[in-house]
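The instructor's notes for this session suggest beginning with a concrete chain rather than abstract definitions. Hand out the sequence below and ask the class to guess, before any prediction is shown, which regions might be ordered.
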Amino acid sequence: VVGNWWPHHDPADRLPPELDDFLSAGPPPVFIGFGSMAGGEGDGERLSEIAVSALRTAGLRGVLQSGRAGLAAS
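After discussion, reveal the predicted structure:
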């Protein structure tokens, strides 16, 4: 289930170079995001650790969208 969807975009828009390089460097990654879900203090760090651990266990690459959940990983 997704929220608002904007199918039109500016063709001049580009991904940040770091993300573009990551996407080009291997198989398609798994996308992880929690939309507009906002967590309490420290929840973003905990959710990030769980997400990264799950990706590593599965042997997958991933992109975390921080959003209001405050996810952060490298």
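Then share the key points. Residues 43-58 form the longest helix (16 residues). The chain has a mean pLDDT of 82.
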